[in-house]
Amino acid sequence: MGMMELGSREKDGKVYYDFMLNRGPQHPGYGPVRLIVKVNGDYIEDARLDPGYVHRGLEKLMEYRTALQNIPLAERACFIDSINSTRAYVMAVEKLVGIEVPEYVEVLRTLAGELNRIVSHLTRLGMAGGAMSQHTAFMRSIKARERALIALEALTGGRYGTEFIIPGGLTNDMPQDLPDIIEREFKKIEERLKDVETVLLKNRIFQSRLIGVGILKPEEAIELGVTGPSLRGSGVRYDVREADGYGYYKEIDFEPVVAEKGDIYEIGDCYARVRVRYQEIRRSMEMVRKLVKIAQSFPKNERKILAIPKPRVATLTFEPGEAYARTERARGEMLYYIVAKKKGPYPYRVKIKSPSPTLMQAFLKLIKGVRIADIPAIHLSLDECPGDLDR
Amino acid sequence: MVFRALLLSLKRFFVSKREVTQIPEEPIERHPNARLQHTLDPMKCIGCRMCERNCPNNAITMVKREELDNPKNRLKIYPQIDYDHCAFCSICVFVCPTGALGHINVAPDPSVPFSEDLIQTPQKMYERYKIKEGEKV
Amino acid sequence: MGMEKRMMLVFFPGATSFILYSMLSMRLERKTLARIHSRIGPKHAGPRGILQTLYDLLKVLIKQLIIPRRADKLAYVIVPQLAIVFLGVALMAMPIRPQGPFLEIPHSLLFVAAVFTAMPVIFAVAARSTMNKYSIMGGARSIISFVAFETAKLVTIASIARLVGSRDLEAILERQNSHGPLALYLPLAFIVLLIVTLVETERPPFDAPEAEPEVAFGLATEYTSVMLAVRIATGYVTLYALSSLLSILFLGGYYGIPIGPIGEKSVRWFILKLAFVTRLFFVLRGGLARYRPDQIARYGRRIAMVLAYINLLRAGYLVLRR
């Protein structure tokens, strides 16, 4: 997959050969995805994607492990935002087996999910700055992300491979000093976010690279199956957290961030998407603060973190049936579809639908006709992840 | 405006607070909850093999250690974790029925000359457990 | 050739100063950027990281020298060195020391401008000779950037010559001695030449020729070992030459206020101004992002050229007022 016919054209008596540019799996400032681009001067005529460099066969591996052992696999679908991905898997398992988790568990799961969303969006903002040679924004975003990771580590015990959400509940309870940690770290994050805003979002050069570039119309976005902030950057108000109302989102009056008509940018261009992500960080921070207060308000005896006894979690058996569940990750909608054919600890088939493949479809459509220099801008504003793409 | 960005960089140039943790001179502050290296309390381990069976990467093997004497542990077997294969998922800690396996918030040092040095014997984990308990007390 | 001249050729502003300047300013750049990013920068290599660039240079030198099979061997090896030679010649013609420049050329301003005009040709040949897609693209972007700002640069230089009434760099220094630094009279010229320096040294915001996500490393993609060191040094030697030119044209060169052992006409003033201008470029890097090549071209043709012409009008006004 991926070889294009390279021909030649004749124009005014001269022969022009097609120029093929390979942004290979080892290209600086990119991920391990291969993009083959046919170029005419500075403009792109055709593009093909050659993914598969990070394929680990997660779906097949999951068929040989129990529900609890599949948690590390479900996390590694996309490492940067692992909690929401695991949550989809665990919700599907719980639906299949018939477990209902207590409210306290939902609150903490939502808290961790929003923290992870902050981490993921900060990573993307930083990488967008780094690709535009704006290293100050990169360093600041990474430092802000470090603070959020410290808060996440205090809550869950891990930074990336968090192993916090398991079928039946959680692995550990919220520590006593979590509210203080969150307040302290969030204050530092806000300082750095202000810096990032000045140096990146309000920077005229950065704006000129992103505004008006890669406009994704709402109808196109829906038709291609784009989800997440990229969809909301085109003005479509669709967020799984609002649509499905899972977890604790309804109780805290969740409102998604949708791009509105702006005075400097157009709806659906790269800047709108980046701005949606930036505002989502702010909104997630608000939600985390609210959730911490709610979690603290639970009396001591109602703080159950497991709905089923601990030994049963390890020996969870599936009854024949199928179930699916979806969550809103930082990149988009993630869906897990689990099928169990016979009674046993292993699932028969697990299908993972991640947001990146559809994002890449949109990417391939958007980069036709733009300049070569716009490829990183569009790529980073769509926020796709190679691990997600290949699984 | 570009000028705001330039002014900010100018300001940061003159008023700069360095926010770096210089490893290894300064230690990284980790929350006590952080799940990194394993600790083992041999007095609690009953040799039920739950950790070995539930590890997703088959990183745990049970080895016979006569010297760690625990009357509840009939076969005198204790877990040995290979950090070459361990994914630090802490499922083993979760499923342990007695709570013998635990965590300490010290990151493993992968810069060892041989991969055999990465194998965490029950003795090593016991030492770490004593350090952790020592800190608590 | 007298002993004095020999010292100039070898030490300052000669070959040794190129190496020293490149190494010190690379380290200074990393330290300055680190301050802006709230980190520390090179610290362990030597006291306060001074030897860092030396170690980097040694590391680069011990790597294997690879010449691509399809590359034009002669051009690949010779042309990057030509860039430094040209810049060295330009530096030799500048009056850096009070005793006068190494090359006593009448109309030295014109000579230096002509040398800089040759740079895009060198880059183009170097890029084409590598026969690598990314280098060729980087070279094409280089040419676009340089050529777009040529007019602005030459018009600004012409305006300075018109105001002073001479094309000789020493005469410009004399005038600054009697009337004060030219930066006060023609501030727009200073700004335009500052921007042109950013273009010629391929720095942000005009670093499209070496934009990592697009063209892996631009011109230098296929260069390893010694050639890579030469290529990186070219960037800094261009900065050296242009900063020297800026110090001479606008800040007064070796003229200064007599303070203690430093006399009124001393090379130490020049070094101070050179350091100031260099550091200015590093600080500017912190807040800027990267332009697209077509945006660079538009910037050069519109903004820079318009500013240069406004500056020319002002220079004319100042001449008429005399």
Protein described:
The complex is a heterotrimer of chains A (391), B (137) and C (322). Chain A has 391 residues and is of the alpha+beta class. Helix content of chain A is 46%, strand content 14%. Chain A has helices at 58-61, 70-75, 82-97, 103-131, 135-156, 178-201, 204-210, 218-224, 229-232, 240-243, 270-296, 310-314, 356-366, 375-382, 386-390; strands at residues 8-11, 14-17, 19-23, 34-40, 43-50, 165-166, 169-170, 321-328, 333-340, 349-353. In chain A, α4 runs antiparallel to α14 and α5 packs antiparallel against α6 (178-201). Chain A starts with 7 loop residues before the first strand and ends with a helix. Chain B has 137 residues and is of the alpha+beta class. Chain B has one domain (33-136): Alpha-Beta Plaits. Helices cover 28% and strands 15% of the residues of chain B. Chain B contains four helices and five strands, in the order αβαββαββα. Chain B has helices at 2-14, 50-54, 91-95, 122-136; strands at 37-40, 60-64, 77-82, 101-104, 119-120. In chain B, strands 2-3-5 form a three-stranded antiparallel beta sheet. The longest helix of chain B has 15 residues, at 122-136. Chain C has 13 helices and no strands. The interface between A and B is medium-sized, with 35 and 27 residues.
Mean of pLDDT of chain C: 81
The total count of strands of chain C amounts to: 0
- Low-confidence runs of chain A (pLDDT<50, min 5 residues)? none
- The end-to-end distance of chain A, rounded to whole angstroms, is 18 Å
Write a brief caption for the model:
The complex is a heterotrimer of chains A (391), B (137) and C (322). Chain A is α+β, with helices and mostly antiparallel strands.
